[in-house]
């Protein structure tokens, strides 16, 4: 054999060789011929001629028969090695035939001395010592040859040994000359079936106290997925059979198989160390999750491997690697040792929320961990690396539905916590110059949740220099010409799962001459916002339309120019059951700010609601575009020292330089930078004093507009002193008004006295004469 192994790996390969044999096909199968001249409407590198799968529920055997025609040289390269993965601890492989047909000639390749037993994955990062593969190298194959094979797999796992289940599905977007699915079982077994549609009904027959169901289709041209279909939506033929009465039966079987020693010394020692190092329970949970995620290698896991009991926690701790279910079981046991309510949960990465619509059966390919913290339920993926967010705000892929590994459990829905913690904030500040010199652009990004993890992975895999080049090219394409004036800076707060970056550019060539003389026009579509939501095609759909979820984006654009006039505040909201959009515009003298907020409320739009969703996107696209007119000849405003830098960096540096009493520690939350507009000579400024160290507003006034007692992140503005002559004018103004008021009171008093005096000759007498009848 070409593979050199030692120790446990040699035992696995030796066990696999014992589980591999060569024999004719079993007698219980039904022969399934196929047409070798089948032509598909969609040509490719190979043509699927036959897909045959037959299950014997009583013998726990599965017969597989397939055939492909190699159309191109690339198809020959793809099939030059015939390979089959299997689990030697739970499966027995019987190979019946592997042959190559060229015209009327058939060449049999089923020679035991040509077969190799290899590990599924090789290399330092992935080494699966449990699963192996049987491999044979095919020689002298050419385009036009037909490759045909058949084998039988016999299950030996004790999990649900008294029950039978199977799932057959035709691959999406793959034409097949014939697919054939058959199930043979003893009459009286409570086996049920379910299909993707009502027309997938089996042909039933009875023979020798056995019942056979057969699903057969010829000249199948495939179902082509519509663009932007959710990955959880299954849009291809599938048939399921199962005799499991409910999900509680399956969860109980897994719970019995996943039992481990509760008093494992190494696990208890590790839990005791976490308790000594961290007094808070939330910190203990956080460091336990971080230990498993970052320090354990994970090998791939499939549905067959999930039927096996996980490796004991002591073994996984010692060797520091395992498959997905091994590390999930280890993390759940570690959290339980910390007296935290935790349990593994089985999920399916393909069916996701559709799992609840199927018949109960062990159909899982991944395991996550559910735990309770501060009265809330959270899921965590133990195979995810470099995650942050503590014990409450960790991000996990939306699996929709899962089955807890506890006796008598039913399917449970995944907790929806990612939508509240995943936010992406982009702030762009433009110091506009219309006198012929370049303008300046400051870019600040604050990402949390899943967006922070995406940036963290990008910086770790690609590096800061490569990302800086990509971002420079992006802004050069957006603003015609761009070059850096501030190097890319970033800060990764993994505990809070917040990633912040900042950069500054010199931009030019993006202003266009307006039809009115003496004006420039600044306009740009909001590509960042619009690229987040894809517009559905006008054609009628039969499948849901996928929407990115969670998606919470805030894009703020600030334009600073001394010539910008003030205006009114404008806001616009677009709301429906799928998306929320808000546009807010504030126009002050010299400062124009426009803020876009976009949030998705679901992960898919039903086919019947596509038209309404498309109309909402059109409105959002119209509102997301912005433009303004600015006069020619205005120089660029003065920039602050933190322009193009990470927020709060300049304040921290100023505080360290002040020799005063100890200041409170900086906050974890990072505020967005604040731009102060230069005051015009004729304007008046409002006094805003930061509280001093003793809590009052008075005290020492340090230079540069800062306050010695200001809290970190506080912005103080210096009060402008008024001239003394202004005060004198104000006093004279007040005295004049007082004198006028006294004169008015005297006049009113004199007139009143004259009115009430009797027989005053100055007032004429008025006689009243009665009217005659």
Provide an overview of this structure:
The protein is α+β, with helices and mostly antiparallel strands. Helix content is about 25%, strand content about 30%. Strands 1, 2, 3, 5, 6, 9, 11, 13 and 14 form a nine-stranded mixed beta sheet that branches. It has an eight-stranded mixed beta sheet with strand order 25-26-24-23-30-33-32-31. A five-stranded antiparallel beta sheet has the order 20-19-18-21-22. Strand 19 (about 365-375) and strand 20 form a beta hairpin. Helix 5 runs antiparallel to helix 8 (about 325-335) and helix 10 crosses helix 11 (about 465-480). It is elongated and about 135 Å long. The protein starts with 7 loop residues before the first helix and ends in a 17-residue tail after the last helix. Mean pLDDT is about 80; it is low at about 1-10, about 120-130, about 650-730 and about 760-773.
């Amino acid at each position: 054999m070409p593979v050199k192994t030692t120790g446990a790996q040699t035992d696995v390969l030796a066990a696999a060789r014992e589980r591999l044999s060569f024999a004719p096909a079993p007698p219980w199968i039904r022969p399934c011929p196929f047409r070798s001249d089948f032509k598909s409407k969609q040509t490719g590198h190979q043509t699927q001629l036959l897909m045959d799968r037959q299950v014997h529920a009583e013998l726990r055997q599965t017969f597989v028969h397939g055939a492909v025609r190699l159309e191109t040289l690339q198809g020959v390269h793809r099939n030059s090695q015939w390979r089959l993965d299997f689990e030697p601890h739970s499966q027995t492989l019987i190979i019946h035939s592997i042959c190559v047909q060229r015209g009327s000639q058939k060449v049999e390749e089923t020679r035991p001395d040509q077969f190799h037993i290899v590990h599924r994955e090789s290399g330092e990062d992935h080494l699966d010592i449990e699963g192996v593969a049987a491999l044979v190298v095919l020689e002298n194959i050419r385009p036009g040859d037909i490759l045909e094979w058949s084998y039988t797999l016999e299950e030996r796992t004790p999990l649900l040994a008294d029950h039978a289940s199977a799932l057959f599905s035709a691959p999406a977007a793959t034409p097949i000359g014939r697919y054939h699915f058959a199930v043979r079982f003893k009459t009286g077994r409570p086996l049920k079936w379910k299909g993707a549609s009502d027309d997938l009904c089996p042909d039933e027959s009875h023979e020798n106290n056995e019942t056979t169901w057969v699903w057969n289709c010829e000249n199948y041209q495939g179902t082509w997925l519509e663009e932007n279909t959710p990955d959880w939506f299954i849009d291809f033929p599938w048939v399921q059979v199962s005799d499991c009465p409910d999900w509680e039966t399956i969860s109980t079987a897994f719970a019995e198989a996943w039992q481990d020693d509760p008093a494992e010394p190494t696990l208890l020692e590790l839990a005791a160390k976490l308790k000594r190092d961290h007094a808070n329970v939330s910190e203990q949970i956080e460091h336990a999750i971080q230990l498993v995620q970052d320090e354990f290698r994970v090998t791939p896991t499939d549905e067959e491997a999930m039927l096996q009991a996980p490796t004991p926690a002591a073994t996984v701790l010692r060797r520091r690697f395992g498959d997905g279910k091994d590390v999930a079981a280890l993390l759940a046991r570690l959290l339980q040792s910390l007296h935290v309510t935790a349990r593994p949960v089985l999920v399916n990465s393909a069916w996701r929320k559709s799992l609840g619509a199927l018949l109960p059966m062990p159909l899982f390919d991944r395991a996550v961990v559910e735990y309770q913290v501060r009265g809330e339920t959270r899921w965590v993926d133990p195979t995810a690396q470099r995650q942050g967010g503590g014990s409450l705000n960790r991000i996990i892929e939306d699996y929709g539905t899962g089955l807890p590994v506890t006796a008598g459990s039913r399917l449970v829905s995944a907790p929806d916590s990612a939508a509240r913690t995943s936010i992406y904030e982009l702030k762009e500040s433009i110091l506009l110059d219309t006198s012929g010199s370049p303008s300046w652009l400051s870019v600040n990004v604050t990402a949390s949740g899943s967006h922070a993890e995406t940036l963290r992975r990008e910086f770790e895999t690609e590096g800061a220099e490569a990302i800086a080049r990509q971002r420079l090219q992006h802004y050069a394409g957006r603003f015609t010409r761009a070059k850096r004036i501030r190097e890319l800076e970033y800060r990764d707060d993994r505990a809070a799962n917040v990633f912040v970056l900042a950069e500054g550019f010199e931009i030019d060539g993006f202003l266009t001459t307006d039809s009115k003389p003496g004006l420039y026009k600044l306009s740009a579509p909001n590509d960042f916002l619009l690229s987040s939501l894809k517009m559905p095609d006008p054609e009628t759909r039969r499948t849901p339309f996928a929407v990115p979820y969670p998606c919470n984006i805030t894009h703020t654009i600030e334009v600073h120019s001394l010539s910008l006039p003030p205006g009114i505040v404008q806001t616009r909201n677009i709301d429906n059951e799928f998306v929320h959009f808000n546009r807010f515009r504030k126009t002050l003298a010299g400062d124009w700010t426009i803020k876009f907020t976009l949030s998705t409320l679901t992960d898919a739009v039903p086919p019947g609601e596509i038209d309404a969703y498309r109309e909402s996107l059109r409105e959002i696209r119209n509102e997301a575009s912005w433009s303004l007119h600015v006069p020619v000849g205005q120089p660029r405003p003065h920039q602050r020292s933190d322009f193009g830098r990470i927020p709060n960096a300049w304040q921290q540096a100023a505080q360290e330089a002040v020799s005063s009493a100890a200041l409170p520690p900086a906050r974890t939350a990072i505020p967005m930078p604040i731009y102060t507009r230069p005051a015009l000579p004729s304007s008046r400024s409002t006094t805003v004093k930061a509280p001093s160290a003793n809590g009052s507003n008075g005290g020492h006034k340090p230079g540069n507009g800062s306050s010695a007692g200001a809290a970190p992140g506080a912005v103080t503005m210096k009060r402008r002193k008024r001239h003394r002559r202004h005060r004198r004018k104000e006093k004279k103004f007040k005295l004049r008004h007082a004198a006028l008021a006294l004169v008015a009171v005297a006049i009113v008093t004199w007139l009143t006295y004259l009115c009430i005096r009797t027989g005053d000759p100055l007032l004429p007498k008025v006689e009243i004469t009665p009217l005659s009848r």
